[in-house]
Design goal:
A: 35 strands, B: alpha+beta, about 15% strand, globular, disordered N terminus
């Protein structure tokens, strides 16, 4: 009897042990802790949903006492309800000033710093989600338009920059938070990387705007790519680049907060009007295999093989699109993709100043878009008489329909001739609004699929004020 | 008296006082000497001869013979020819036998009770009688010297302290230099020779039949005092005494007698004062005895309580008798007693005065040790215990030496015993944001533990933490006590102590694991007892008592970890599973039913706090589990490696040892070995489910399951040990012998890792505490109370907290690191859930003003722990989701504070102190509810007020005019008085409390505790006492049974037709020696 019980006991115990082993051999489903829907900022995004508060950070506009350089911040309220909030002007080397703001439904307000300062960063805090904000800088060097940041970031990258004798490059590093930020600022040039000691562990005190003169740190370089990486805290980084000779004009705007693998640039142009180049910075530790793909505006244009090139880790490369023979002339969009997944940062330069006959039309330099969406805001209006071209890029394989609407008291009303315009698959749509009275209003581009939108503004006359900037996608 | 007057002429001679009867008048009061003897012993004859030699003229001798009456008669007759002999049954206790004199003798003036090893000098009885008349005493005794060396004193009476401890007037081995030769009142005399007035002895009812192990004299003398009689020592009367081993009562019985005498002799009012002191003295003496290696004495001291309290009927009867006797109030009785502690005084004398005695005591200990080694009784078991204790103490030395760091959720105890007990009585819990619910029992228990540790809460916490390891070991020892084999008990003890469940819980700082480790073997033992399965069937106790016993254990473990109370039904279920294989299913099912009922008992014992568990979420009771489980894997769990201990393969030896039971055991060894392994495997299965995230249990849950595994292994290993004794030893040579040897080797191998781990001295627990970096927070700036919002992986949080999302927990602490109170075990209330909602809003990127949302909650710091303690390093990180840290970094009103690599800390710039004078803007915002209002207002700038604590919950201090915000959920019982004028409160921010102070003044904020709360505590205390009393009553059952038997014998004796042998009022019976 005892023997049978012993046998049964051994058997059952063995079976249980075997079952446990079998269970253990099955790999458990990995469970990721998911909390909140916020994602790391990759570019300015107009929020959606029912946020309690949203904040926009404009990296800095000049506010010279003599008016030689100035700027404005445009706050668009595209919603049906009044927008309330506050604006904080953070001047360089002076105390911030806070003021309440209110923007009526479907309207826009332009803010100007109430003080004189070399630069003034502007924080627009809104109770709700109904604001889209961008800044415009006007100086003798030209005009520059840029979206403001919808979030601060621990990293910022500016692939394009020049510190030649005829250029001035200043970084605007703003810490809007109540604790100090410590950042490392480094540079990549065609000769290699530079990490000036003074800019390592660079302290940006709480709620303070700091200016870094890059042309002092990295002198006489045609190409200076900048990286700002925080050891602690988060910052907002802008770039103030002026050109006086070969490259002319002003680039004053936000740089890219995040590297990515697929960058989309609407509004490229190869022809006599401009020289187009792209600058690729690889801030990571792995070499990147990069492809540049073109989406021509002309549906009849022949398909072009992608341009492939390697970008070394920590290095910066320039691709001269205009000098590439097999790229057809005309308007196109560009998509730059790191095929091996190594994150890169890309900017496009459209240099009209070097083209015969276009003297004074200046150089534009803008980050591409890592996002695509169906709704893009263009809050600012050009000065009357400006050339104004909106370009929509479709990198999908699907034909899309695009509507350009003006935001006014009646809501978003389609601009005549720009309602339900067909955008071919893998194509580019160029909407020329020069002289169109609708440009006096904030605009919104709506598509029935994911697109990217930018605009080119060419102020009237022989000035140096051409500027190009992405529109602001609604997230 | 006239007759006595004839005996007055006394002639002093050399040596001892010698009296000469000048007029041996026959009217001298008759004295009957009563000797209870079995006739055996070297001194009986000489003792009897001295009785015959007494010069007292009217002395009769009555010999009460126990044992062989012929033998006694043969020894008595030639020596005391006229003595009367009365046979007494051998099982009659001596006091009962002595009481026979009341029935056998009439007309005597005095009874002189004598041991059969006392040899009186010839005039002793006469001198005693003379002094009794002279001093009007009721009880008198002679000076006794040592039999073999009459120059040394044996006793000249005793003083007694308030708790009944005897204080001998003569020191041990004191030389008799006539220094004690004055007649003096004493509290107690030795029963070796005691002269008692007959009328008094009858009034007292004789010796107490229940007190018969050396406590009889104290009991009799105390009652004599109560009746107003004097008790004297008459040194002129002298006797030699040989105190043989037979007279040395068992220590346990002596302690029981002492306690019973004290309980029955004091009046009620006095007893209320004395009893706590008695209990304290017991605790101190027991602790001292343990420290000095006198475990038996400690057991006697502590064991007396349940035994005596379990027989309260006897005590009550004695009290009634004492009350009837009482002529003297207690304060006069106290006047007769010695001050202070007799035992302490004796100890001090022993350590300060008598070097010779010290050496003598040491020599005694040495002799005892030699005897122990020589005889070998339980030698291996004692050495095993010493080894286990040595390893546990040595391995915990750093923890014992200093306070245990605040690691994991080993939170600090309340600051003082008063704080703990007052808090427990208060009607408001400060946990989280505060609530009007009852406190968890742990807070009250910490206060009681603080009492035991003499008010040191750090010591109490150390005792709780380290003591739980020892409690577990003791439990494993008791688990196998009915197996009747030292080898079984040793195997069970070593296997359980070597399974590093408790050590890992200690190292990682998990109360639940520690508590479960301490409780598991106790639970298993009680479950086994409930099943009434052999060998546990022999313990005859009512089923309900065993249910309550298990319920108490579950309630105790539930104090620290409610989920660990599930060990009872869980283990019982595993026993049922094992019984399906080896039989005994009915018993196992009975055990399961009992375990479920015990769980109910545990819940009842935690009322009213446990009443709220019904609507409490599982993750609150069980703790928030990490997402996807713990990921240790089966291989680690088999080795109990949930922390730094168990990494070596040697731990598998414990499983091998347990498996031996199934292979070599027979009968109940096989059955319980299988059931033990079933418990172990079920525990392992549950642990695996928890480990893989299939069963959500918070930190410590793994150890709770594995503690059952360890207890099962210990039981199985004990069965293997028992099998080695009962089934293998002495049997014919077979495969069983090598397996038994293998089992022993496996146990030894399994124990090696723990022995090695002891070298560390702190069981790998971090040396620094979470409180250390928090001390760097600028908390003093703007005082007034603040809170910390903890959020992160549940394994890293210093408190159980509440679930924020799967794998993420949050919790609130007041004014710094977590304390014991923060083991909330209740669901978050709406305002607390607001903190979670605020975090969600921030993590959704829907605000940059999290600080403003948390400001009214008085959240000054948001802390995200990245590891389970400072200094645990990146090897053990519990990284929270990036969205959380990213969203915190994006807040415009949170300031990062860099204090430790493992803590992400933000200071809220928009916080409002817990008690604050609100700014105008904050006051206006407080009129509204909801997040929107908070984000639109600037809440900064409110200043803390009411800074001085006033009682457990109250605060006071100057108050300016304006709105005063108190960041606790609104409750009308919060009262703010300004210059004595009470103000009515209003809601603030939709949930908090606010007062509008019109004119500033001295403010006092207090919570008016409802009377129901202390009543509930009293009710809970009554429930615990009742449960404990039931067990005590059950523990006293054998003693009661024994007493019943004695009473039966006594009654039988009384019913026996006993003719009066000595009638001193009538003619002397024939054969009278005189």
């Amino acid at each position: 009897m005892s023997a049978w019980r012993r046998l049964a006991a051994v058997g059952v115990i063995g079976a249980i042990a075997a079952a446990l082993v079998a269970v253990d051999r099955r790999d458990p489903e990995p469970v990721e802790v998911v909390f909140g829907s916020a994602t790391a900022p990759v570019q300015p995004v107009a929020p959606t949903g029912d946020a309690l508060t949203t904040v926009w950070f404009c990296p800095g506009i000049p506010a010279d006492a003599d008016g030689s350089a100035s700027g404005t911040v445009a706050v668009l309220n595209p919603s049906e309800v009044a927008m309330t909030g506050s604006v904080t002007f953070v001047p360089f080397e002076a105390d911030p000033v806070v003021a309440p703001i209110e923007v009526a439904p479907r309207s826009r307000t332009e803010l100007r710093p109430p003080m004189a300062a070399r630069f003034v960063a502007v924080q627009v805090e809104v109770f709700g989600t109904n604001a889209v904000v961008e800044q415009t800088t006007v100086s003798r060097a030209g005009t520059s338009l840029t979206p403001c940041a919808s979030a601060a970031s621990p990293t910022w990258y500016a692939p394009d920059g020049t510190t030649t004798a005829d250029a001035q490059l200043t970084l605007l590093v703003w810490n809007p938070f109540p604790d100090e930020a410590i950042v490392d600022i480094g540079f990549a040039t065609e000769e290699g990387t530079r990490t000036p000691q003074a800019l390592q562990g660079y302290v940006v005190p709480a709620r303070t705007l700091r200016l870094v003169d890059v042309d002092q740190a990295v002198q006489r370089n045609e190409l200076v790519a900048t990286s700002v990486e925080a050891r602690s805290g988060r910052v907002v980084v802008g770039r103030y680049q002026t050109h006086r000779s070969l490259r002319r004009g002003l680039v004053a705007g936000l740089v890219s907060p995040s590297p990515g693998t697929t960058w989309l640039f609407p509004g490229g142009d190869k022809g006599e009007a401009a020289v187009e180049r792209i600058v690729i910075l690889n801030p990571g530790d792995d070499d990147a295999e990069v492809d540049v793909t073109l989406y021509p505006a002309d549906p009849a244009a022949a398909l072009v093989e992608p341009i492939s090139l390697p970008v070394a880790a920590g290095g910066v490369e320039v691709v001269d699109i205009s000098a590439t023979d097999f790229v057809p002339d005309g308007v196109h969009s560009l998509q730059v993709t790191a095929e091996n997944g190594a994150p890169i940062v890309v900017e496009r330069i459209l240099d009209r100043g070097q083209v015969s006959g276009n003297i004074g039309r200046a150089t534009t330099s803008q980050p591409g878009s890592l996002l695509t969406g169906g709704r893009w805001f263009l809050p600012s209006s050009p000065v009357p008489g400006s050339g104004y071209v909106v370009t929509v890029a479709n990198a999908t394989g699907t034909e899309l329909r695009v509507t350009l609407a003006a935001i006014g008291p009646a809501g978003a009303v389609a601009v005549a001739g720009f309602d339900q315009v067909v955008l071919p698959a893998a194509g580019t749509l160029r909407l020329d609004l020069s002289g169109n009275p609708a440009t006096a209003s904030p605009l919104v581009v709506e598509a029935d699929g994911p697109v990217a939108v930018d605009r080119l503004v060419i102020p009237p006359g022989e000035g140096t004020g051409a500027t190009a900037a992405l529109a602001i996608v609604q997230g | 008296m006239q007759a006595y007057a004839a005996c007055r002429e006394v002639v002093e001679g050399p040596g001892y006082p010698r009296a000469t009867v000048t007029d041996a008048a026959p009217t001298a009061p008759p004295v009957v000497a009563v000797v209870v003897t079995d006739g055996v012993g070297d001194h009986v004859g000489e003792a009897l001869e001295t009785l015959a030699a007494q010069d007292y003229p009217n002395l009769r001798v009555l010999v009460l013979a126990v044992g062989d009456v012929d033998e006694v008669a043969a020894r008595v007759a030639p020596r005391v020819p006229g003595a009367l002999l009365r046979p007494i049954a051998p099982d009659v206790p001596p006091p009962v036998a002595a009481n026979e004199v009341l029935r056998l003798v009439e007309g005597a003036g005095f009874f002189c009770f004598l041991h059969d090893d006392v040899a009186l000098d010839p005039p002793a009885v006469r001198l005693l009688v003379e002094e009794t008349y002279r001093s009007n005493a009721g009880v008198a005794g002679p000076k006794l010297v040592e039999w073999d060396d009459p120059t040394r004193l044996d006793t000249v009476g005793f003083g007694v302290d308030k708790v009944g401890e005897l204080a001998p007037i003569a020191e041990p081995d004191e030389i008799d230099q006539e220094q004690h030769d004055a007649v003096r009142d004493v509290f107690c005399l030795s029963s070796a020779c005691l002269l008692v007035r007959t009328d008094l002895f009858r009034e007292l009812g004789g010796f107490d039949a229940d007190v018969h192990h050396g406590g009889a004299e104290l009991d009799l003398c105390w009652r004599a005092h109560l009746s107003g009689a004097r008790v004297l020592v008459v040194p002129a009367a002298r006797g030699r005494h040989h105190a043989g081993p037979a007279e040395q009562a068992s220590e346990a019985q002596a302690e029981r007698d002492r306690l019973r005498t004290v309980l029955s002799s004091y009046s009620g009012g006095h007893l209320v004062r004395v009893l706590p002191q008695y209990a304290l003295a017991t605790a101190v003496q027991a602790s001292g005895s343990i420290v000095t290696g006198q475990g038996r004495r400690a057991a006697a001291l502590v064991g007396a309580w349940p035994s005596v309290l379990g027989d309260l009927g006897t005590v009550r009867a004695k009290r009634r008798t004492a009350k009837a006797l009482r002529q003297v109030p207690d304060h006069e009785i106290r006047g007769l007693q010695v001050r202070g502690s007799a035992r302490l005084a004796a100890w001090l004398r022993g350590h300060t005065g008598h070097r010779e005695q010290r050496f003598s005591a040491l020599a005694g200990v040495g002799r005892g040790a030699v005897d122990f080694v020589r005889t070998g009784a339980h030698r291996a078991a004692v050495f095993t215990w010493l080894g286990v204790l040595a390893v546990l103490v040595f391995g915990s030395r750093a923890l014992i030496d200093g306070p245990v760091p605040l690691v994991g959720d080993l939170a600090a105890f309340p600051a003082s015993v008063g704080d703990a007990l007052r808090s427990y009585l208060a009607g408001w819990r400060e946990t989280g944001l505060g609530s009007d619910g009852p406190w968890p029992t742990s807070v009250g228990a910490s206060g009681l533990l603080g009492l035991v540790s003499f008010g040191s809460m750090d010591l109490a916490r150390t005792l709780a933490v380290v003591g739980l390891l020892v409690v577990g070991a003791v439990g494993s020892w008791r688990l196998s006590r009915t197996m009747g084999s030292d080898r079984a008990r040793m195997a069970g003890l070593v296997v359980y102590a070597a399974a590093p469940v408790g050590l890992n819980a200690l190292a990682e700082g998990r109360w639940a694991g520690l508590a479960a480790h301490a409780a598991a073997p106790w639970v298993l033992a009680r479950v086994a007892r409930l099943g009434r399965l052999e060998p546990f069937a022999g313990v005859a106790r009512p089923f309900v008592v065993d249910v309550v016993s298990l319920g108490l254990v579950l309630a105790l473990v539930g104090v620290l970890a409610p989920v660990a109370a599930l060990l009872g039904p869980g283990i019982a279920l595993a026993v049922v599973a094992g019984s399906l294989v080896v039989g005994g299913v009915v018993g196992a099912l009975r055990a399961l039913g009992g375990a479920v009922a015990a769980l109910v008992v545990a819940v009842v014992l935690h009322l009213p706090w446990s009443g709220g568990l019904a609507d409490t979420a599982w993750e609150v009771v069980a703790g928030v589990a990490p997402a996807g489980g713990y990921g240790h894997g089966l291989w680690a769990l088999v080795r109990f490696e949930t922390g730094p201990h168990g990494a070596t393969v040697l731990v598998l030896g414990l499983w091998v040892a347990a498996a031996i039971a199934v292979l070599v055991g027979r009968d109940w060894r096989l059955a319980w070995g299988t059931r033990g392994l079933a418990v172990a495997l079920v525990g392992l299965g549950v642990a695996l489910a928890v480990d893989r995230g299939a069963l959500p249990l918070g930190p410590g849950g793994l150890e709770v399951a594995l503690s059952a595994t360890a207890a099962g292994l210990a039981l199985a290993a004990a069965c293997a040990g028992g099998a080695a004794d009962l089934d293998v030893r002495g049997g014919r040579l077979s495969w069983r012998q090598p397996l038994a040897v293998l089992g022993a080797v496996a146990v030894a191998a399994g124990a090696l890792p723990v022995a090695g781990a002891a070298l560390d001295g702190r069981w790998d627990q971090p040396t620094s505490s979470l409180a250390d970096p928090l001390a760097f927070l600028p908390t003093q700036r703007n005082p007034g109370g603040y809170r910390i919002l903890w959020v992160g992986d549940p394994r890293a949080l210093p408190l159980p907290g509440w679930e924020l999302t799967e794998g993420l927990a949050y919790g609130l602490t007041n004014d710094g690191p977590a304390v014991l109170d923060d083991r909330t075990s209740r669901s978050p209330q709406a305002p607390e859930a607001e903190a979670a909602e605020a975090l969600r809003v921030a993590a959704d990127g829907a605000t940059n003003r999290l600080g403003a949302l948390l400001g009214p909650l008085a959240v000054r710091y948001v802390v995200v722990p990245l590891a389970d303690g400072p200094g645990t390093g990146p090897a053990d990180p519990f990284a929270p989701p990036a969205s959380l840290t990213s969203s915190l970094a994006n807040q415009l009103d949170l300031r990062a504070v860099d204090i430790d690599d493992n803590l992400v800390v933000y200071e809220n710039t928009a916080w409002i102190p817990t008690r604050a004078s609100l700014t105008a803007e904050a006051a206006a915002a407080s009129q509204e509810a909801g997040f929107e209002a908070l984000t639109r207002a600037d809440l900064g700038g409110s200043r803390g007020v009411l800074l001085e604590p006033d009682g457990p919950l109250g605060h006071q201090g100057p108050l300016p005019a304006g709105a005063v915000g108190v960041a606790v959920p609104r409750d009308d019982r919060w009262v703010l008085e300004v210059d004595g004028t009470p103000l009515s409160s209003r809601p603030a921010f939709g949930w908090a409390t606010s007062f509008d102070v019109t004119n500033g003044g001295e403010g006092r904020l207090a919570y008016d505790t409802p009377v129901a709360r202390p009543l509930a505590v009293v009710g809970q205390a009554v429930a615990w006492v009742a449960a404990a009393a039931l067990l005590v009553w059950a523990a006293g059952a054998p003693e009661r049974r024994r007493r019943r038997e004695i009473r039966g014998v006594t009654a039988e004796l009384a019913a026996t037709d006993a003719p009066v042998l000595i009638d001193l009022a009538g003619p002397a019976p024939a054969g009278d020696a005189r």
